[in-house]
Amino acid sequence: MKYSYFPGCTLRNKAKDLDDYARACAEKLGFSLEELTDWQCCGGVYPLGADEIASKLPSVRALNAAKKKGQDLVAVCSACYHVLKRVNDDMANVADIQTRANNYMQLDTPYTGETKVLHYLEVLWDVVGFDKLKEAVVNPLTGRKVGAYYGCLLLRPSSVMAFDDPENPTILEDFIRALGAEPVMYPYRNECCGGYISIKEQEKAAGLCKKITDSAEGFQADCLVTACPLCKYNLSKNSNLPIVYFTELLAEALGIKEAQE
Amino acid sequence: MRKIGVFVCHCGSNIAATVDVKKVVELALQEQGVVHAEDYPYMCSEAGQVRIAEAIKENKLEGIVVCSCSPRMHEATFRKCAERNGLNPYLVEIANIREHCSWIHKDMAEATEKAVILMRAAVAKVHLNAPLQAGESAVTKRALVIGGGIAGIQTAIDIADAGYKVDIVEKEPSIGGRMSQLDKTFPTLDCSACILTPKMVEAAAHENITIHTWSEVEKVSGFVGNFTVDIRKKARYVDMDKCTGCGICQEKCPSKKPLNEFNRGLNTRSAIYTPFAQAIPNVPVIDANACIKLNTGKCGICEKFCQAGAIDYTQKDEIITEQYGAIVVATGFDTIKLDKYGEYAYNESKDVITSLELERIMNAAGPTKGHLERLSDGKAPKEIVFIQCVGSRCSDDRGKPYCSKICCMYTAKHAMLIRDKYPDTNVTVFYIDVRTPGKNFDEFYRRAVEDYGVNYVKGQVGKVAPQPDGSLMVHGVDLLENKQILKKADMVVLATAIEPNPDVRKIATMLTASIDTNNFLTEAHPKLRPVESPTAGVFLSGVCQGPKDIPETVAQAGAAAVKVIGLLAKDKLKTNPCTAKADELRCNGCSQCANVCPYGAISYETRQVNDHGIREDRRIAVVNSALCQGCGACTVTCPSGAMDLQGFSNRQIIAEVDAICR
Amino acid sequence: MSKVEQIKEISGVNPLKCMKCGKCSASCPSFNEMDIKPHQFVTYVINDDVEALAESKSAWKCLSCFACIERCPRDVKPGKLIDAARQILIRQRGQEGLSPDEIPALLDEEMPQQLLMSAFRKYRR
Amino acid sequence: MPVTENWKPKIVAFCCNWCSYAGADLAGSSRLAYPADVKIIKVPCSCRVNPMFILRAFEKGADGVILCGCHPGDCHYSTGNYYARRRMTLLFSMLDYLGVEEGRTRVEWVSAAEGVKFSETMNSFVEKVRALGPNVRLGDLRCKN
Predict the structure, then answer these.
(1) Residues of chain B positioned with their CB less than 8 A from the CB of A185
(2) Which residues contact B104 (CB under 8 A, 6 or more apart)?
(3) Residue B74 belongs to what domain range?
């Protein structure tokens, strides 16, 4: 199975781990990620305004490129996934945005939301299957107590993201379980880490992160997994609790991490 | 050419403000056959009807058209008026120039033009109306009440007291319904069982009432006065006549895993069970899914211990067929599922409960024997938070758009009872509005605040977060102080929205009773006929029609009973004369009409016909006008055009089409 | 078009649907930093009080975490309203929430590009 | 017929007595506007509508015909709307064959509680018929003055 792959700006440098492990694990699990040739940054945040068209165009280009290849479009970074999926929804369902974006793009055939946007975790869940994933684990993470940190962007708004239950998601917990570790349930796993606010208001972000990591530690988590470089940055900066990308954990369980090191 | 009169109603300013009524009158007089036309402020008023009466007499009118409100509102009024004055009531047509015209258009010229066209269509139709005579049908003097909660019980008792037979069909093993699950009732705090049980006993003992518990309505056919209903009596596996209700079977039954529905699944029960101690009938049922004997053939312990020999594993479901003149729907409600409200951690924490679950916890017969304790660790909660409007007043796809009406009052009740019995327990209520319209209701709520020190906070809760120490962190807001509140609670109670019992959809379909987008049954008129369904002979009692508390439910139950009694008191009912009729010269006896008739109203007979001088025997469709409900399915199916519907004949409808397209 | 009309247009939100339950404010992680709270924001738009919104810090404090949008029982989406107000501010020159000169001092070694991108989108045109 | 700016379509709406006519009443009592071009004919059930009536309307110059009944499963007479649906499917495909555009005919289920839906349905239907312009296909010249 081949997927179009949108790595995103951060996975190209600061979050290279997230990217490398994702690709390596994909090969091991029998699917491959073909990076789109000339993708542009998604912008990091979804432009909420109904009249913001230009800032949605990079996503439309990526979506259209995947459409031309006849592939689903996979993202690993929560923010890229969020932006791509919401722009795609606009292109499928919001007539005004659809018309105006297509007017800009001047495509041979207009893009109307045909591409399916998937998060890497969804590929693991829906295509590979967590039971198959479990079988592929060579280095089960037995005894590790891992808290899933979802943050905001994977889950909300659920009407568009339709990723998991927005208040009590389970996909990462199931993933952790498949790798042989013990998932730790804690209530603030879908609360905001502060996001972009940390550029100007470190203390604000620190407070929010502390609430999250304190809660996870209270429930005995050894570490947290996340899919978002910004969440990882904020949480790591404000806590001693190890924060790892879910792909790193995956690579470790599949025996890829050691091989690469 | 018939002489037609046209009467244009102003409806005060409802019509006249948007439709030029004088113009309608003027143009009506130009229509063929119209010999009289006039307008009047309120045609439906006594004085308006007098004008119609005089016009009928003076002009020897042979048909009238009233341009007014919807025929659903006053067609009957004007038909009666015509009949009193010697004009066949079916020679009256209504042009709906209010709901379908003046109320939806703003431009006077446009509305007037439309009103004129609607008038013309009605005039064209009435020229072709036939004088019809309503037939008569007998009334079966027995009523069916579907649902044995307080609504159904009260309706049944009231009908039975008037001397008519009533059957109650209840799908649970006992009558009693939701009210039997409640601990205390507002605003008097009397014990629910203490006031309900006597009613249950009264119903059971009443010579005119038959109770079918563990039974469901399976099929309904017929029409007002003459319903035929199949009732499935589910296998109880216990002989109702032999059982003495001693209860030893329940004590000895080794299968103790099934969740106790009566206690909202908070504890378990045996496979053979009566839902609660005061159950009526006091005869247990065997839960076939959980019974070891029925599933494996082994066990049989209940049979061994039953001294009365009442256990019968061979029982099968039984279908009984009964005749009724009237049917009352009293199917009640349930609380909504909370799966979509993950932020309140209902599925994550045992100490987040619904208010109905709290009723069971507070009740002496409940899972904690009436002690207020946390279901997670059995500890007494010291800090309780109530959250109002969970799933009510929502316009998203998670909840219900309506106010559930009872929650403000029962929460005040719970808060007060807890503060009274456990004074060292703090109670906080997060509310949006406190709605207390009802006798002694606001006083009751104020007592909770002023005398019992319940802490009411105006604001909602965004999240309930279970903490490592087992407590619940409530993230709320106080809108009056304009600050966020973090409250550590031991128990959170959700005032969960109520919704009609999910079975009501199936029942409404069987009864062809209409239902609204929230699954509440629709009334014939929201103000003036609140206990009648638009389907004749079907009546509404209790929450199936809309959220209600107990006093309102009982009042409506009585009102529904009165309507049933009024129906059953009649020996004969007038039937709708707008029935199908076959033209014997055109009918070729092909049977296609009988195949589409939902009422089995069409049969065939061989009859001698005189077809333009040729006499021969032919097989001809005959419509039983008592059974025909006038849908018209047969008229369109008939390949030779022999079948027509009186009152809505092909010629009449075509005349309307022509008038509109003119 | 008035500013309030612009806010409604950009956000696509009908503030009249609000029943003033406060669930947005109960859910908001930036509540304490906001001078006009999320639920008040809706009322200010209804009351056409744009000056107050323009002077308010709230537009810069919203994290776009979408908790209010997710939980709002009336589908009002206060977060979209706040974002629309922010849009109107940054579309006026000199009103941006972040100037390029400030940035070097804010950077650190670990900071992901995503943060810079997001911050630029949120604070500037 | 040339389309003038003042052209108004003639639209016939057949509504069943139990659901859709009541839905139209509710649209009225809720003051939910729709164009005056729509004229409603009450029938007991959607199954009373003979395809002949619809042909007649087009013949007499109607520009659009819409049939409204109870939702599937909610018919007052149990099954009438199913018959209506089947008949209209056949009729509409025949009309399409004859060149009467698809947008000029429609079947819609509107319950007694759906005043909003009734109004929205009529608005969108009229808009569609307006866009199509006057119906010229089945108009019988003998019916013109």
Answers:
(1) 348
(2) D27, D28, D31, D32, D33, D34, D119
(3) 4-126
